[in-house]
Amino acid sequence: MKQDSTRNIAYTVDCEDYVHVVKFNPFDSGDACSLIAYGGNNYVVIGTCRFQEEDAEVEGMQYKTLRTFHHGIRVDAIAWSPETRLDAIPPQIRFCTAASDRKLRLFTSDLQDKNEFKTFDGHSDYINDLVFAPSEGQEVASVSDDHTCRVWDLEGNEKAHFVLRSPGMSVCWHPEEAFKLMVAEKNGTIRFYDLITQQAILSLECEQTPLMSADWCLKNTLKIGAVAGSDWLIWDITRSSYPQDKRPVHVDRARLFRWSRVNENLFATTGYPGKTTTQLLVHHLGHPQPILTGTAAVGSGLTWHRTLPLCAVGGDHKIFFWVTEM
């Protein structure tokens, strides 16, 4: 697994806008290509990607834009719905955005004439993260600087409302744990809520602040990861409410934490955008040092491919892609 740890960017896609957020579809859409969404100051673009790592007939990477959605305001977060299908007739694209006006927008399109969107009102401050219910996709959960986590139906009705003790930074809904929600707060607490009783059932502590991002490992439901201060932290929830493992990684402050979707020991972190570049680090729990270091000009967002050890970060009119090994 030895590799040059300062790996250059494997692929780039040129974009017509600054990319604030980028998100691979984590669900199977019934097509060989992977769906990717990215958001800028005015638009959300939906495209497909295919990589030589998965298809020998592809030279490097193939990217195609399927549709550009006018958003009219800066996009801060994007979540894909599991109802998105490219193999349906007609196809269905469904995703939800959080924007700087504190509203959620649910977009549904058949990539032809039907393009609908609904606005969800309720948060009174900046929305930091959102996620669809992973099995049916009939609800959306969001967390905000207004110290709440809210669960909405697809009509925009609030179905649940959890009061937090500090800004909500991340929210995760695991496909194997359909009735639990993980909510990470800026004060360093990560709580799990039972969606049936609407009660908190478990909490984890960073013991340091600010917690900026947390993620629930797809491949192992017992593993939680986060970044707080300049460190990454990992929990095994069966063992302790305190981290099993932690390490300082980013000199200034860490910004995002994302588990790989293909390996429970592989994850990526990003630092705060510096004056010129953002540092991306890919870590493997079996290795003391990061196995890949990348930099992106004023990067933001971080997302892993559904089936490959490949991650992407948005930047100035570009998306950057890095490939690592398992």
UniProtKB/TrEMBL annotation:
What name goes with this protein?
Nucleoporin Nup37
Which SUPFAM superfamilies does the entry mention? WD40 repeat-like
- What are the boundaries of the signal sequence? none
Q: What keywords sit in the KW lines?
A: Cell cycle, Cell division, Centromere, Chromosome, Chromosome partition, Kinetochore, Mitosis, mRNA transport, Nuclear pore complex, Nucleus, Protein transport, Repeat, Translocation, Transport, WD repeat
Query: InterPro entries given for it?
Result: NUP37, WD40/YVTN_repeat-like_dom_sf, WD40_repeat_CS, WD40_repeat_dom_sf, WD40_rpt
The processes (GO biological process) annotated in the record are: cell division; chromosome segregation; mRNA transport; protein transport
What organism is this sequence from?
A: Manacus vitellinus (golden-collared manakin)
In its keyword annotation, does this UniProt entry include Transport?
yes
Asked if the record carries the keyword ATP-binding, the reply is no
Q: How does it assemble?
A: Component of the Nup107-160 subcomplex of the nuclear pore complex (NPC). The Nup107-160 subcomplex includes NUP160, NUP133, NUP107, NUP98, NUP85, NUP43, NUP37, SEH1 and SEC13.
List residue spans for each WD repeat: 120-162
Taxonomic lineage: Eukaryota, Metazoa, Chordata, Craniata, Vertebrata
